[in-house]
Every structure is written in C-alpha cells, then in structure tokens.
Amino acid sequence: MRPIDGIIVHCTATRPEWWADKTPQEQVEEVRRWHVQDNGWSDIGYHDLIARDGTVLPGRPISQVGAHAKGHNATTIGISMFGGHGSSADDDATEHFTTAQLDALYALIRRYQNEFSIPDANIIGHNRVSTKACPGFRVQSWLNSRRAAASASHRPERASPAQSSTIQVSAVDLATKAGAGVSAVAMLDGIAQYLVIGFIGLSALLTLYIMRERLRAWAAGWR
Fold first, then answer.
1. Which domain holds residue 215?
2. Which residues are catalytic?
3. How many domains are contained in the chain?
4. What is the C-alpha separation between 105 and 47, in angstroms, rounded?
5. Considering the domain boundaries, does residue 159 fall inside one?
6. How high is the pLDDT of residue 35?
7. Rounded CA separation 77/46 (Å)
8. Are residues 82 and 100 in contact, defined by beta-carbon separation less than 8 angstroms?
9. Above 80 in pLDDT, residue 107?
C-alpha cells in the first residue's frame, strides 16, 4: 500500500442534469472513458466519485497513484463530485452540489482521515494546487463550517435557570438553615453561642462551596 497523507476534492464540471437518465455507475464509466480514451490514461483519474444522489462509487483503486492533481498525486486520494459546471473557486458548495453529495463527501473524508491519519490541513480542493476553480468552493472553509455545525449539535444543552432545580434547592436550604440557626443560638449561653456560631459558619462555607461547584457544572452543560 502506498503512503497516503492527503485528500484532494474535485468536481466533474458537468451540469446538474448531465446524464440524469443514466445510473451513477454509467456516469462513472463515461468519466472513465474521457480519461482513458481521450486523455490516454491507464484508468479513471479519481479514486472515488459521488453522484448527485449521494452514492459513492469507486474509481481507481486507492492502492494506485491517481491522476487528478498534477504534481500532487503520489500520496493523495482524489475524490470528485458530479456537478460544478460554471463554478468559481469561491462559490458556496451548496450552489453546485446537493445536500446528499456534501453529506457523503464529509463522511468519506472522515473515514479516510481515521483510516490513514490524514491531518485536517491536508484536505484541500483542486483549486489550492492549480489555477482551476475546481471543485467550485473552498474546501477548507467548508470543512471548518461542517465541523463547527457537528460540534454544536453534540454540545449538551445548557439548563435554564428554571431547569436548574438543584441550584435553587441549595439556596433555599441555606436560607432555611441560617434562620433556624439564629433562633437556636439566641437561647444559649456565651461559650455555647461561640461554638455554635463557629459550626454554623463552617456549614455555611461548605454549602457555598457545593453551590459554586454546581454552578460550574451547570455552566458546562450538566443538569
């Protein structure tokens, strides 16, 4: 197996409706014909292709060096999405590709990252290493947005003040204990009062500490 340390994202530069009456596999075979018959290559240049419906289809075997980005093929994987005709390098990805395609691309990138330990910085678009607009958006910016969205969706929901019943109960307990303590101390003699006041002070400090820790946990999303 060859060393792999990067992923380069491409597009086929076809219109959205291109070969819409054909199966995804037939579309892949047409791209393979372009590359083999028209370009004279040994096989299709991409390792994976993603159809408009999100289907991921294999191209050239991963174990073989691709033919998708001149000077950057040796250690990279080439992934191409159908579409992207007339795009510019700084367009939004959703302008030219379906949600199903972009979801499939993200999942495929994550899979390859886990399999080959590919760093985030090494996942780029063809437009990073050529003057072409391909794939029609900035892959790094798109990936950052996807990761941020994924992170936000898994972040624990912070409890509202009304939901934080444990904090409210602690405050009520503290007030109740303090009131009862004052009444009891007033009935004792001098030395006993000092001892009881010291004990109540320590109890109050302990209660405040517990409340502080609960507030910290609440701020972190714990309920």
1. 165-219
2. 10, 46, 126, 132, 134
3. 2
4. 13
5. no
6. 98
7. 8
8. no
9. yes
Task: Fill in the amino acid letter for 178.
Answer: A
The amino acid at residue 147 is R
Instruction: Give dist(CA 78, CA 65) in Å, integer.
Output: 9
Q: How far apart are CA 41 and CA 61, in angstroms?
A: 14
Percent of the chain topping pLDDT 70: 69
CATH number at residue 45: 3.40.80.10
In terms of domains, do 140 and 190 share one?
no
